[in-house]
Amino acid sequence: MTPSDQPHTGNSTAAFPTDWQKREQAILAPWAMHAIESAGRTHEEPPHPFRSPYQRDRDRIVHSAAFRRLAHKTQVFTDYPGDFHRSRLTHTLEVTSIARTLARTLALNEDLVEALALAHDIGHPPLGHAGEDTLNELLADEGGFNHNAQALRIMTLLEQRYPQFPGLNLSQEILDAQAVRARLPEAPPPLLEAQVVDAADSIAYDTHDADDAVELGLVTLDDLLTLPLVASAAANVTDRYGSLGPLALRRAVLHELIERQVADLIRETTTRLQEGQFQSATAARTPAEPGGRLVAHEPGLAAGKRDLERFLFQQVYRSTRVMEVRQRAQQQLSDLFCWYCQHPEEMPPRYRQRVDSVGLKRSVADYLAGMTDRYLKRDVQRRLG
Ligand code: MG
User: Fold this and answer.
1) What is the pTM of this model?
2) CB within 5 A of ion ligand 1: which residues?
3) Would you kindly state where each structural domain of the chain is located, as residue ranges?
4) Which of 136, 180, 242, 269 has the most crowded CB, counting CB atoms within 10 A?
């Protein structure tokens, strides 16, 4: 009998050649989160015959509407024409790629890391952080709006894909990691897998926002080379390849920057793990100092990253060109929010129905937050002319 002939009784893995429990036992470090130790799901379900709980989480995220919409959501550069710069989906895939490399090298649970990385940005509304700031102001007297908290709402309530429960019914470890990101007071300290995803997120956006900013003409490569971290990456590239043209140099420097951050993170984290001699995921997640993390860069590189982030904030995210587009887009989002508050009957039924339980403003925000940038643009034209 081949695996595909097996009935989906859901209770036995014995008939399948790959047993995820054995695989995890063989390859994961003691400080990794083993799926067998999972706190489970809010709505109990029988185990899957051949996918581990975290593989199942990953698949649920990939098949969700919120994940698909990342393809048409802006990362930073709202409303810029062109197909070059990153969308939230391509950012998410870059984060996932880096995070899986880190997880495999550190013998952490790669399935859990993949699920966490794919899910980490699903709560973003249209227009990137500009959209988030606007919704946060509009909901100021109702607890505000935050993309990390919104991801939790999507995971536990807003996605409607399964008849037996609302949301995606993900493993508790995914919800806990998202609760840490949303800074909920009850969130437990992050697992190493969650720390890896946060570090990969930072590596990805620091590097690709610099790349996109040069591509869009907001800064030049020479501007970036004033930063010691970028300058030393460029020096390495020149040592290796000799003198390169501007585009080849830029690409090589970006690869070097990612490689250097990943290698540094692995080195520093490995040292800390060896010093700690952790025998379980629980021991490794409990920091010696409040808020401390084992997955970390060495202090020199961490300082270089802070310089780069300060530069990006001042020269790119708060540049006149980005701010002008941002303010126009924020006004449109705000006007559309007010329009739906006056015409809630124009929302799809499931958002209308939730007005009684979550309030009008929250339900309108849930609806708008689910829109892609281009859907929002079309809806603004349709509703506001
Ligand atoms: Mg991100």
Assistant:
1) 0.92
2) 121, 201
3) 20-41+52-384
4) 269
